[in-house]
Design goal:
With 84 residues, the protein is an alpha+beta fold. The chain is 37% helix and 12% strand. The chain starts with 16 loop residues before the first helix and ends in a 7-residue tail after the last helix.
Length: 84
Amino acid sequence: MNKPVQLAPKAQQQPTLAEVAQWPATCSVRKAASAIGCSPTHLASLIRRGESPVKTVPLGSSRRQLVITADLVRLLSGEDRGAA
């Protein structure tokens, strides 16, 4: 008997700006990376180096970070970050 062919899972489609704007106040690095169009590893590396294009907040005492969705929307819409 032949085994059924296993297909690889579909790659997650990049969310639209309108979809991202509906997300909760914070999101995971993985989810933010999918919206930006980069790998989660690359975005996490940028965050660790202090070069992230989006603002993050630490989650507890671990190294885990959450991305601020409003800043992600700002980035995706092409708005300037403005004076900090």
